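Need residues for this backbone.
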């Protein structure tokens, strides 16, 4: 844990004032001159701030006398960094949005917050295997190029994005909608992997704050705000990922979406984004070209087989996902002949098996 700055402690105290959101907090800071100066002023000064009535005055006075010891002890126990918007380590991209959180709790490598290019990769929790495969492969590709993948560590696309980034060269960041001391075993395992790879997990909520549905839209604003661009891989029409995309657009950040089958309602949200002006991308290089990010090219591995039959299978899978029977027809091999070939290629990572006896080239 870092030693919180006096400004961070003052911001933490302000965050404890019930009903004081980012808008009111910024007005108080403007009226008093700084975050620290808020606590040097009397309630009469606070009362002169628009929308600060009797309830907020009571909340502020309560926060003024509230002990921070329990929170700081929890940070010490959980090895959490406490940073505020005025600290040098606070992410620059996030600081630029008007509703940036005053404080962040960070677990892991705090220097990972100083990334140069941040890309949010988001999508539905209940997503298709194909979409999760795309999220994982593209995230690894972008991570190898030096992009920091930012997501929410949820099931589905989020988990696939972090998983791909963990196979790449650049640390990945996860933003959570709960306190960092409330994580379940599965989440703790994800956090351990992210930290081992040099990344960190972030939350604006007190360490012991249990997740609530209303926390996640606010979590999404941090994901959008920390990222120079947001890529939506798969999203239904009511997916929370569309909130992230909307916020990114409001912040003046680029929004990109991957299209899918019109027969699958899980892609309807992406199609709506594209109709609304998001850039359609079906190759990761298109994202880099659109954003004009000059990055060192990643080394692409050429997949080759160890014999002519393996090369036949690889050639058949060059441009599409195929069912076992379709590979059998294309390669003029019976299923019994084909099965050991597919197994050998799968064990070497040259191909991947998808649900329903379908196959695709390995990443």
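Answer:
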């Amino acid at each position: 844990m870092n030693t919180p700055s006096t400004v961070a402690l003052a911001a933490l105290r302000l965050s404890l004032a019930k009903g004081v959101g980012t808008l009111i907090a910024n007005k108080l800071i403007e009226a008093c001159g700084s975050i620290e100066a808020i606590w040097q002023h009397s309630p009469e000064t606070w009362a002169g701030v628009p929308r600060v009535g009797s309830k907020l005055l009571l909340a502020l006075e309560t926060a003024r006398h509230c002990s921070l010891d329990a929170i700081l002890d929890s940070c010490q126990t959980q090895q959490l960094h406490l940073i505020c918007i005025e600290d040098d380590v606070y992410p620059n991209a996030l600081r630029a949005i008007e509703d940036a959180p005053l404080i962040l709790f960070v677990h892991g490598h705090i220097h990972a917050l100083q990334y140069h290019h941040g890309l949010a990769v988001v999508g539905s929790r209940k997503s298709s295997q194909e979409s999760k495969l795309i999220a994982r492969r593209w995230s690894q590709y972008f991570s190898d190029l030096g992009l920091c993948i930012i997501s929410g560590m949820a099931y589905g696309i989020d988990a696939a994005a972090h998983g791909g980034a963990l196979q790449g060269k650049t640390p990945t960041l996860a933003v959570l909608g709960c306190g960092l001391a409330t994580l379940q075993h599965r989440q703790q395992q994800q956090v351990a992997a992210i930290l081992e790879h040099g990344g960190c997990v972030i939350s604006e909520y007190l360490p012991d704050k249990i997740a609530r549905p209303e926390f996640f839209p606010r979590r999404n604003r941090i994901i959008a705000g920390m990222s120079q661009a947001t890529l939506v891989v798969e999203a239904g029409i009511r997916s929370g990922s569309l909130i992230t995309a909307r916020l990114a657009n409001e912040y003046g950040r680029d929004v990109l979406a991957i299209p899918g089958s019109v027969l699958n309602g899980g892609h309807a949200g992406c199609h709506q984004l594209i109709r609304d002006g998001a850039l359609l991308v079906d190759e990761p290089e298109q994202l880099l070209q659109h954003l004009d990010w000059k990055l060192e090219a990643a080394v692409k591995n050429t997949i080759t087989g160890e014999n002519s039959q393996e090369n036949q299978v690889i050639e058949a899978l060059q441009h599409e996902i195929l069912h076992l029977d379709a590979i059998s027809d294309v390669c003029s091999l019976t299923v019994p002949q084909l099965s050991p070939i597919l197994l050998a290629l799968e064990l070497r990572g040259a191909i991947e098996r998808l649900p329903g006896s379908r196959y695709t080239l390995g990443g």
